[in-house]
Design goal:
Shape: globular
Largest sheet: 6 strands, antiparallel
Helix content: 40-55%
Structural class: alpha+beta
Length: 531
């Protein structure tokens, strides 16, 4: 029987859940939620201590890390380095990926985050680190059993009629198993890897000790700022170590989706009782794999509509509520038969206080109105630029007040010079990537890549205009009250969007296919210009 034929569950008033409820979510009857505000605050408070550079790192772990990474670099130096530029890069990237994989959960997670840095890190490195998303060895089932039984305080057989010994998926911090509750309800159970919490803390101490040594020594570290990158990484990973926080994230995002009536996105219900720091039982949702676009289209699903709903709901969460899923990738999404999207894995969630939420709102709305000053001021508020940066000087130095330039027409030398100047100015203004901004950009890059398979021929500029018009029509009054600018009275001006995409000012429409062709041309010029 389809979802639409089922009675409407009462908890749809508080969350964007499925319409076939295995249980109902009652926010006043979830024992595991008690005291979570203090748990979240205490977890965030750990970060400065975890990333403080000690006089000496944990020596035993330091030796293991140094051996694995050092051996990877030495093997590359003795072999791949001599086989031409492309094979050299590919070889180093592959060896680093294998080293990270052998070093375990913390380094795997770091590699997964770096794999989202397309356009920031070398494509060979990004490609290899993407493999860390789905090539993580699973824990033995006996270790899984012990963790679940210890956290639930009872034998597995008392809670579950069935519990699959082989996981559905294995990730860096945890793995997910299919199970059936004693009452016959099908669920999935997310189980934390044994000892991962202590290992993460030791690894952060090692990374924090090594990071300052990398400043200025490797090209990719110039803007990445290794110490800041490790601090940012610590902020994301420590909250993943308590699954009660993840379950709370699920409820918060489901609540945002319900408040905006975005029913095209569905969040699994966490179990009312079976949630602990290391075990999370939740509703099982199924659907097409995010990569199975052909299957979706064959089933009559409008993939353009799927993607559009995802982008709109993501922007509404960040700009209007200050909460958004912070780790979008293909493994965290299913497309259901009715075209709705099941959103999974809420370990990393962007959370903005009111000041930063309003800054995000100004940043995005400024982009659709080509209000450069508003965008730069928003970046200062978010901490992406130093607090004493002169806004007008930033605009001049970065050329933000100039007409859009067709980067495809520039020579390799001109492109390199522009990149060099941009890097110099960004460093001068103390540019960095705060956690929420990094998660936001990472998700935007995910959507950018998804366009290529879900809607390769859609007019990108037309879509931006359509989304801006939606926000003006539906949320214009609220936006005007909050930032003093009424999008209903301001025309959409895509000059800034064209500039960001490297398009000439006269461009009226461009498909993703054409944009990718232009990007490849620019990438080729950079590659050919490298020594």
């Amino acid at each position: 029987m389809s979802d639409s034929a089922e009675p409407r569950p009462a908890d749809l008033d508080i969350g964007a859940f499925s319409t076939t409820a295995p249980w109902l979510v009652d926010l006043d009857d979830l024992p595991w939620r008690r005291g979570l505000e203090l748990v979240r605050a205490r977890t965030r408070g750990e970060v400065p201590e975890l990333t403080r550079r000690r006089r000496l790192p944990p020596l035993a772990r330091m030796a293991v890390v140094s051996f694995r990474i050092g051996w990877a670099i030495l093997a590359w130096y003795l072999t791949d380095r001599r086989r031409g530029r492309e094979r050299s890069r590919a070889g180093l990237s592959r060896r680093l990926r294998l080293a990270f994989q052998r070093l375990g959960p913390t380094f795997i997670k770091l590699g997964q985050i770096l794999s989202s840095g397309e356009g920031i890190f070398p494509p060979e490195l990004v490609g290899q680190f993407k493999l860390l998303r789905d090539r993580v060895p699973a824990e033995a089932f006996e270790a899984v059993r012990q963790t679940v039984e210890a956290d639930l305080g009872r034998p597995l057989s008392e809670c579950f009629a069935e519990f699959a010994t082989t996981p559905l998926a294995a990730a860096s911090i945890a793995q997910v198993h299919a199970a059936r509750l004693s009452d016959g309800t099908e669920v999935v159970v997310k189980v934390q890897r044994p000892s991962v919490a202590s290992l993460v803390r030791r690894d952060l101490a090692v990374m924090s000790w090594l990071a300052p040594l990398l400043v200025g020594r490797i090209p990719v570290a110039v803007l990445a700022n290794p110490p800041a990158l490790i601090e940012l990484f610590a902020e994301t990973i420590v909250e993943e170590l308590d699954f009660r926080l993840e379950a709370e994230n699920m409820l918060d995002i489901a609540g945002v989706l319900a408040a905006t009536n975005q029913r095209a996105i569905v969040v699994p219900r966490p179990h009312p009782r079976l949630v602990t720091p290391r075990a999370l039982v939740m509703e099982r949702l199924d659907g097409f794999s995010w990569d199975d676009v052909a299957g979706m289209q064959a089933a009559g699903i409008d993939t353009e509509a799927v993607l559009r709903a995802g982008v709109v709901s993501f922007l509404e969460g960040a700009m209007l509520f200050g909460v958004f899923h912070g780790d979008l990738h293909g493994g965290n999404l299913f497309v259901r038969a009715d075209g709705s999207v099941a959103l999974l894995d809420f370990g990393i969630t962007g959370r903005l206080d009111e000041t930063r939420r309003l800054a995000f709102l100004r940043l995005v709305m400024g982009g659709t109105m080509n209000d450069v000053r508003s965008q730069v001021e928003a970046l200062k508020t978010l901490g992406a630029l130093s607090a004493d940066a002169d806004v007008e000087q930033v605009i001049r130095d970065l050329g933000l007040d100039t007409p859009p330039q067709d980067v495809a027409q520039l020579t390799a030398e001109e492109l390199t010079a522009q990149l060099r100047d941009l890097t110099k100015h960004l460093l001068a203004y103390g540019a960095k990537m705060p956690k929420e901004l990094m998660l936001f950009v990472k998700d935007i890059l995910f959507f950018d890549g998804a366009v290529g398979s879900f809607a390769p021929d859609v007019d990108l500029l037309g879509e931006v205009t359509g989304i801006a018009t939606y926000f003006a029509a539906r949320h214009g009054g609220r936006i005007a009250n909050e930032i003093g600018v009424d999008p209903r009275e301001r025309p959409v001006d895509l000059s800034g969007v064209r500039s960001t995409l490297g398009l000439p000012a006269e461009t009226e429409a461009i498909s993703y296919r054409e944009l990718q062709r232009r990007r490849e041309e620019v990438r080729r010029k950079f590659t050919e210009h490298e020594p």
